[in-house]
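Hi V.,

You were right to ask for the full record rather than a summary. Here it is.
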Amino acid sequence: MSKPATRIPLAVWLTDPVVPCWTLNARQIRRLKAELPRARVVACRGAEAFRRALPRARAAIAWVFRPEWLAQAPRLEWIATPAAGRDYFQVARPGLDITYGAFHGRIMGETVAAMVLAVNRGLLANQDARAAGNPWPRDALAGIMRTLAGTHAVIVGFGHIGTWIGRALKPFGVRITGVRRHPRAAPRPDYFDRHDRLAGLERLDALLPTADHLILALPATPETDGLMSAARLARLPPRAAVYNVGRGNVLDEAALARALVRGRLRAAALDVFRQEPLPAGSPLRGAPNTLLLPHASAVAPEYLDLFLDEFIPRFRERYP
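Predicted structure:
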């Protein structure tokens, strides 16, 4: 008679005090236990419970993992987080693997499409005009409402998220240029037509004057810090709008605010900022034609279900 396989201790701590869909609920915990019989799931509701689970854990799921906790986790082989940003964890140890969620694009693509529509179909201008005291702002909208067909989106950061953003915009007839560090290493998305392109970062300066929609979906790295400088923003045409759903370090926020105040750019829709929450004194708060979201472009009820769709097969592959 064969000996039963040893169960893998899995410490799970996914809670958020503000956003319910970022907290693993009872149904999702039951799903983990049911679909991973090889796992011994330890569901934790706080940092202290998570730390108590670490000495036995071989795998962990968490939003937060502090470097000093590694000493308490001698058996830990794998940390998985639903987050997309590689800046979430500053921990490293030989033999320790860290994986990140790759599912955010399908949610964030819808958010960016909503931003683009709000700018181009007058929803943003309508709200601003009404807030300024115009109860029926047809006159304010008449000269600015545009259809999307034939416009050009330059998506800087054309990975998982950027590709989904392009997919969400393509049905409206938007021409897509996806900018990434190694464009030849990536296949053309199946929704591309003959007008769409992949380009390297070295082409960015040449592409900016052609953009109707500049969409930033970049991670926070030394290479991306300040990438969209005042000089690069000045290369955009006045018809262009700027959208940022990656990380706030990429963008010169003061230069963007000045361009909006001076009418040098059409609009901005931003979900991420260099400092979060965005300070009350930020010039972006008073800039015209500006939509500010509180780092929420991936919020959706199915957020952690999509994460589990990725995590469960990964766990089964690691621990057959």
